[in-house]
Design goal:
Elements (H helix, E strand, L loop, with lengths): L5 E6 L7 H9 L4 H4 E7 L1 H10 L8 E3 L11 E4 L14 H19 L5 E4 L17 H8 L7 E5 L4 E4 L9 H4 L2 H19 L5 E5 L14 H13 L4 E6 L1 H6 L8 E4 L2 H12 L4 E5 L4 E5 L16 H25 L15
Parallel strand pairs: 1-2, 1-5, 2-4, 3-4, 5-12, 7-10, 8-9, 8-10
Antiparallel strand pairs: 6-7, 6-11, 11-12
C-alpha cells in the first residue's frame, strides 16, 4: 500500500499487440490514480514510442528503477530493460515474446516480494513467448508454477453477470476425458466455493456444474462421465456447499439458466469460454484463483490485426484492473472477518436467492 492506495503491477504483454495500447488508454483516465498506484513493467523507450504513435503525448508518467520510489499521483513505469527494442506492430516476433517474458517475470518477482499488491497482465502470444525458462501454455500455468500453487490455481472468467471456472484448462481435446476425475472435480468445486466467498464476498455461493458430453450424457447413452464421476461428486458435496447439475451446456446458456447461479464450472476450455465471450466479451476478465497474489487480465488476446491502429477497446483491461482492486479488498475483508467471528457479518453477500 502507498498512501493507502493499492499498488497495481502491470505486465506489458506482447509489445506488438494491443496490450500497451489498452494499458496507456487506461492510464489516461484522470481518476485512476485517485484509487490506486499503477506500475507498468516496461521501459521508458517502449512507452515513449507508444505514447507518440497513439497521440498521447500529454500522458505523464514516473519512470523508476526502484519500486520503493513510486509516485502515488501519476502512473509509474518500472524500467525492467534499458535497450531500445524494435517494435513491429501487428507481427509476432521473437522480441515480442522475449520482452513480454521479461516484463512478466519482473512483475511476478515484485509480487512475491510484496512490492506490488495485485498483478494485471496484458496479453501474450503463447507461441513466441516460449523459452527455456518459459515452457507453459499460458499465463495461468506459469503463475501457478512461479508461486508454487499448481494444485489450487484455476482460471475463472468473470463479468458482472457471469463467472465460469474450468476443470481443465489449456489441454488438447483428446485428453479432456481422462482428466475428468473425482479427485480433480472435487478439488475444483471446493476451491471455487472458497474463492467465491473470499474473493467475491458471496456468503452462500450457488454453483452449477456442466456435463462433459452432449445432453449431459443422456443417462449414459452419450457417455458415462456424468454417471460415473460428475453426479457422485455433486452428491458427495451437497452437505458442504450449494452445487447443482450436471447441466447440458447448450441449453444451460441458451435458456439463460446461468443467471440463477453465482458461478458455473465447465469441464473444458471452449465449453466455458465460448459462451462467456459471447455474453461478456467487452467487459470480461480472466482471474487466476488460488494464488497468494491477486492476478487478473483482459479476456482478449494480442489482436495483432488491430495493433497500431488506435482501435482497441480498453474496456476489458480497465475492468481487469478495477476487479483486481476489488478482489484484493474483499480478500482482506474476508480474512479479517474470519479471524474475528464478530466481524464476519461485515462481509457483503450478493448471493442470488431463489
Amino acid at each position: 500500500m502507498l498512501d493507502n492506495k493499492i499498488v497495481v503491477g502491470i505486465s506489458q504483454g506482447d509489445m506488438n499487440g494491443i496490450g500497451l495500447e489498452v494499458v496507456l488508454k487506461t492510464f489516461m483516465e484522470p481518476e485512476l490514480c485517485d484509487i490506486c498506484v499503477p506500475v507498468l513493467f516496461s521501459s521508458q523507450k517502449t512507452v515513449g514510442f507508444y505514447r507518440k504513435v497513439m497521440g498521447m503525448e500529454e500522458l505523464n508518467f514516473n519512470a523508476t528503477r526502484d519500486l520503493k520510489q513510486l509516485n502515488s499521483k501519476k502512473p509509474n513505469v518500472f524500467v525492467c530493460y534499458e535497450e531500445e527494442v524494435q517494435i513491429e506492430m501487428g507481427n509476432s516476433t521473437p522480441n515480442g515474446g522475449k520482452y513480454a517474458r521479461i516484463s512478466l517475470q519482473k512483475a511476478c518477482e515484485a509480487a512475491k516480494q510484496g512490492l506490488i499488491d495485485v498483478l494485471v497482465t496484458a496479453p501474450i502470444d503463447k507461441n513466441n513467448i516460449q523459452a527455456e525458462d518459459f515452457k507453459y501454455p499460458g499465463h495461468s500455468e506459469y503463475l501457478a508454477s512461479f508461486f508454487g500453487f499448481e494444485k489450487g490455481a484455476m482460471m475463472l472468467m468473470c463479468s458482472d453477470d457471469l463467472k465460469v471456472g474450468l476443470v481443465t484448462g489449456h489441454v488438447p481435446v483428446q485428453n479432456i476425458s481422462a482428466l475428468i476425475t473425482a479427485e480433480r472435480l472435487t478439488d475444483k468445486l471446493i476451491h471455487l466455493n472458497k474463492t467465491l466467498k473470499s474473493d467475491f464476498a458471496i456468503q452462500k455461493p450457488k454453483i452449477a456444474v456442466l456435463g462433459l458430453n452432449p445432453h449431459a450424457g443422456d443417462k449414459g447413452t452419450l457417455g458415462n462421465e456424468e454417471e460415473n464421476v460428475i453426479k457422485p461428486v455433486i452428491a458427495k458435496l451437497k452437505d458442504q456447499m450449494q452445487v447443482y447439475g450436471p447441466y447440458p451446456a447448450d441449453g444451460f446458456f441458451g435458456a439463460e439458466t446461468y443467471k440463477k447461479f453465482d458461478a458455473v464450472l465447465a469441464m473444458y476450455h471452449d465449453q466455458g469460454l465460448i459462451p462467456f465471450k459471447t455474453i461478456s466479451f467487452n467487459d470480461g476478465v480472466n482471474f487466476t484463483t488460488g494464488l497468494p497474489v491477486v492476478r487478473t487480465s483482459p479476456d482478449h488476446g494480442t489482436a495483432y490485426d488491430l495493433a497500431g491502429k488506435n482501435l482497441a477497446d480498453a474496456g476489458s483491461f480497465r475492468k481487469a484492473l478495477y476487479m483486481a482492486i476489488d478482489i484484493h479488498r474483499n480478500r482482506k475483508m474476508y480474512k479479517d472477518g474470519t479471524a474475528n467471528p464478530l466481524q464476519i457479518r461485515a462481509v457483503k453477500s450478493d448471493s442470488r436467492e431463489n
